[in-house]
Amino acid sequence: MSGNGRPVVLVGCGRLGSAIVEGWLKTGAVDPAELIILTPSEKPVAERARALGARVNPPLEALADARAVVLSVKPAYWRGAVEPLVSALPEDATIVSVMAGVRTAAIGAALSPRPVVRVMPTTAVASAAGIAAVWSADDAARAVAHTLFAPLAEVVDLDEERHMDVATAVAGSGPAYVHAFTRALAAAGEEAGLDPDSALKLARGAVRSAASADPSETLDALIARVASPGGTTEAGLKALNQNDELDEAVEAAVIAALLRARELSKD
């Protein structure tokens, strides 16, 4: 997708940054010829992008006509990462932050007068199967985020910036919770007699099947479709959430992640 020759700059190419580049290359959401990647260390995806025409760590003069700058660095180090870039960026460049917990007010103060939009995508953007929460007080900046991420993810627009921390705790961290559950499910299968390989395949297959369910159906309806009255699934569900233990554990995980996101916002 062409940006009229004006490049998109990605600052940081760690796990999430690499996933974003993978998604752009897969979908064409960003033309590699219009992509600049700034990374302190060599990354395989950056080299693949370079082979397709992207520029990796060019002189800062190359940023002079950037249309968007995606900040994908560790929240604790973002100020040091953007400080050298400020004088090189045009004032109409949209700043897109995918950093957890860093407020638009802080980013805007460091990069004023450029508009800022926050996006919290999952790493599944690499395969164009992600989910991404978006917030900005600037409609044009929000539209830029949609252009960059809608081809890679289902985009959910949030009404208030404070909800970005909740989105981080639910969707940003959520895949790790699901992987942890899958690991526990596989371990339980192994404990009950399956060999490790079969247990893991069956656990992953169960989660994959659940994820492919019709999204128009309610979760209660999907559960009822599998859990026949008096059957094995119903018995398992009762044990899983005995005394609301499952609900409480998930709530505790979300709250812990939410509180950490708020701590990061104070750094």
UniProtKB/TrEMBL annotation:
Biological or metabolic pathway of the protein: Amino-acid biosynthesis; L-proline biosynthesis; L-proline from L-glutamate 5-semialdehyde: step 1/1
InterPro entries: 6-PGluconate_DH-like_C_sf (IPR008927), NAD(P)-bd_dom_sf (IPR036291), P5C_Rdtase_cat_N (IPR028939), P5CR-like_CS (IPR053790), P5CR_dimer (IPR029036), Pyrroline-COOH_reductase (IPR000304)
The keyword Amino-acid biosynthesis belongs to this UniProt entry's keyword annotation: yes
E.C. numbers: 1.5.1.2
GO molecular function, one term: pyrroline-5-carboxylate reductase activity
One record GO biological process: L-proline biosynthetic process
Keyword annotations: Amino-acid biosynthesis, Cytoplasm, NADP, Oxidoreductase, Proline biosynthesis
Enzyme class per UniProt: oxidoreductase
Binding site for NADP(+): T39
Compartment(s) of residence: Cytoplasm
Reaction(s) catalysed by this chain's protein: L-proline + NADP(+) = (S)-1-pyrroline-5-carboxylate + NADPH + 2 H(+); L-proline + NAD(+) = (S)-1-pyrroline-5-carboxylate + NADH + 2 H(+)
One GO cellular component, as annotated: cytoplasm
Ranges where the Pyrroline-5-carboxylate reductase catalytic N-terminal domain occurs: 8-101
Residue ranges of every copy of the Pyrroline-5-carboxylate reductase dimerisation domain listed in the record: 161-264
Highest taxon of source: Bacteria
Homology family: Belongs to the pyrroline-5-carboxylate reductase family.
Function: Catalyzes the reduction of 1-pyrroline-5-carboxylate (PCA) to L-proline.
UniProt-recorded name of the protein: Pyrroline-5-carboxylate reductase
Source species: Brevundimonas goettingensis
Lineage, opening ranks: Bacteria, Pseudomonadati, Pseudomonadota, Alphaproteobacteria, Caulobacterales
Gene expressing this chain: proC
